[in-house]
Amino acid sequence: MVTVMKSERLELRLTREQKTDIERAAAISGRSVTDFSIPLLVDEATEVIRQERELKMSKSAWDAFNRILDEPAKPLSGLADLLRRPSVFND
Which residue of 30, 69, 85, 88 sits 20 to 30 Å from the alpha carbon of 2, by its own alpha carbon? Predict the structure, then answer.
């Protein structure tokens, strides 16, 4: 197992009640406050970033996109020939 050197710090301001609850939960789970908190913070950060990266568009753009998808496929010259050629990849 590779140990990663942790050199960065993150300081937070909490109410006394928040701090107590976090410390209690960490103790119940048998972890330090750091080991308890980091996975939760990273999971939430990952989800926020994922949501930001999702495709976002207006209703009119979405409707136009769906209209295009509903149109019949157009033949592309040379595609059938290309698909009949042997693969350039070795198995």
Answer: 30
Q: Which residue has the tokens 């009949």?
A: 84
CA distances for 72 relative to 57, 64, 68, 69, 82, angstroms = 23, 15, 9, 8, 21
How many CA atoms lie within 13 Å of 58's alpha carbon, on the beta-carbon side? 3
pTM: 0.57
Asked whether 33 and 23 are in contact (CB, 8 A), the reply is: yes
Local confidence band at 65 (pLDDT 50, 70, 90 cut-offs):
very high
**Token pair recorded at residue 6:** 């942790």
